[in-house]
Amino acid sequence: MTIFDDLTAEQDRLEGVLAGLDEAQWTSPSGAEGWTVADVVLHLAQSEEGVTATAAGAGAAIRPADGLSVDESMDRLVRAERTSPEQVFRRWREARRAAVAALRSADPGRPLLWVEAPLKPSTLATTRLAEHWAHGLDIAGPLGLAFPDTERLRHVAWLAHRTLPYALALTGAGEHPVSCALTAPDGTTVWRYGPDDAESTITGPAGAFCRVAAQRLSPAESGLRTTGPYGATALDVLRTYAA
């Protein structure tokens, strides 16, 4: 299975959830502050359209507006294009299929412009999987719908660990090796990232690690354990943005 296959599977799961929602559920508050379920799906559609555009060489279609953060820019875009749940759902379904097709056919060695940093197609696909998973939590959680962790979280965990040097550097701590030993959703397999001899470590459930990285769970409530001089700091700055 490639990252593109797993991205498709994650989106298929979300489409199955969305297909069963009624009008009231579509317009109910999501876990993303200030957004309804329809708003979240609209944001995903807009982002997927940006993937197709950048893969076609149209430049960085997803960039913050002047004077605004990325989140503020995305909120403005959602508010400008709100429409009926039926239209939003159709737009996302079309956009997500086009985006995956574009990533599959892109030159694997050529970085694509994205937000503030160019990413190779496989890494961009990983960020799209991470975002669809996180927003799936935003949708399913408030509605009380099942959205269990899957083996696909290995991509989210990899992405979060990959960005740790950048995140730590932003704190002024500098770049320091951090290793992670994360228990997969099957409860047995352990996913390992980073050098075995790293002095700083993060251990515990992969689902908790990924939720902290996606800012859906606080480090203090995660149950994750840290050791070494930079373990706790690394957990505090853990994110799923790509750098």
From TrEMBL:
Domain called Mycothiol-dependent maleylpyruvate isomerase metal-binding: residue spans: 8-140
InterPro entries named in the record: DinB/YfiT-like (IPR034660), Maleyloyr_isom (IPR017517), MDMPI_metal-binding (IPR024344)
GO molecular function, one term: metal ion binding
Gene3D superfamilies referenced in this protein's UniProt entry, alphabetically: dinb family like domain (1.20.120.450)
Source taxon at top rank: Bacteria
NCBIfam families: maleylpyruvate isomerase family mycothiol-dependent enzyme (TIGR03083)
Name used for this protein in its record: TIGR03084 family protein
